[in-house]
Specification:
single chain, 4-stranded antiparallel sheet, elongated, binds zinc ion
């Protein structure tokens, strides 16, 4: 690649300093650019380094694939469910068809319109049984018994499937959320609560969602909890202006001090601590449920194991917290 600034000179190094320069430099560019030689990487070294990184990356990818077998498990569950259901469905069908076949045998014999001399010996035997014994009554009785059993089994199965369905919808809310776009009614701010505004939660990547309302993206967040549904924040003013800051622990749960800031004013509107396993504890100051900025009404009180304890007091000023 030839340098656009110095014709005839080949671009052969990359500047790795994060200072917003042109990055691709020829030997002459390099001369004018100045600085430490360590900040220049020759192209070949860049390629070698990338190759190493890529190998490392592939190795880790492979290790994870060996460690986590859930994609195979999902396939396995698929086969299990489909297989067992197919067997069952076909068996029920066979039972039903068998009963129907027997009915047809009786009906054909009785309605054939043949003269008795034309029947085979075995058919005649059945005919005589129909006429002289309880053959049909007995068959009707056992038929009703088979139907009853099949019905009971099917109802039992239906109820178990409903339980499984319920379990899946309850336990996998977050996972299921990936399939369809979530919509909910929000309101522009606490003062105009009665005016509903349609909002959407859109997955832009598997782990990134956007809260969108009237075409405007109000917030983009990375989600770490794939199993639970993303939080629904109805107060769009809060959604748009409040920005949380804090640290995540090893398992991506919130740990230590977290603060929420109203972005335009830099005012702190919520603050408190999370334990090592992501539970709120100790004194917290939080926005009231229908918070709006002009009034800045906050609540202060104590959390134990993520649950509010004792009496919570209203306050208008963040400083209030330090009176405890
Ligand atoms: Zn540079
Ligand atoms: Zn140049």
């Amino acid at each position: 690649m030839i340098c656009p600034i110095h014709p005839g000179k080949k671009i052969n190094v990359i500047c790795i300093e994060p200072h917003g320069c042109q990055k691709k430099l020829c030997s002459e560019c390099q001369y004018y650019h100045g600085g430490d030689t360590k900040q220049y990487l020759p192209f070949q070294r860049v390629l070698n380094k990338l190759k190493l990184k890529s190998e490392e990356f592939q190795l880790y990818k492979q290790q994870l694939k060996e460690k986590f077998t859930f994609p195979d498990l999902i396939k396995q569950i698929d086969y299990q469910l489909i297989g067992v259901w197919k067997d069952l469905r076909e068996s029920f069908q066979k039972i039903n068809e068998g009963i129907e076949d027997q009915d047809i045998i009786y009906l054909n014999l009785m309605n054939s319109g043949l003269s008795p001399s034309e029947y085979s010996y075995s058919d005649l035997e059945i005919l005589i049984n129909i006429l002289q014994t309880d053959e049909l009554n007995n068959w009707n009785k056992s038929k009703s018994h088979y139907f009853n059993q099949s019905q009971q089994a099917t109802l039992m199965l239906k109820s178990e499937v409903e339980k499984l369905q319920q379990f899946i919808t309850e336990q996998f809310q977050g996972v299921l959320a990936y399939k369809k776009q979530q919509e909910y009614d929000g309101f522009l701010d606490a003062k105009s609560k009665s005016t509903k505004t349609k909002c959407q939660i859109i997955y832009t990547k598997f782990n990134e969602i956007q809260y969108k309302c009237n075409g405007e993206i109000l917030q983009t967040i990375i989600i770490y909890d794939l199993l639970n549904k993303p939080q629904i924040i109805k107060n769009l003013d809060v959604l748009k202006h409040v920005h949380w800051k804090g640290e995540l622990g090893n398992d991506y749960k919130k740990v230590g001090l977290w603060t929420a800031e109203w972005m335009d004013t830099k005012q702190i509107v919520s603050c408190g601590s999370y334990s090592q396993n992501g539970m709120k504890y100790g004194y917290w100051i939080e926005m009231v449920k229908d918070y709006f900025q002009e009034m800045n009404l906050l609540e202060v009180g104590e959390y134990v194991n993520n649950l509010r304890q004792g009496t919570w007091k209203y306050c208008y000023n963040f400083e209030y917290m330090y009176q405890f």
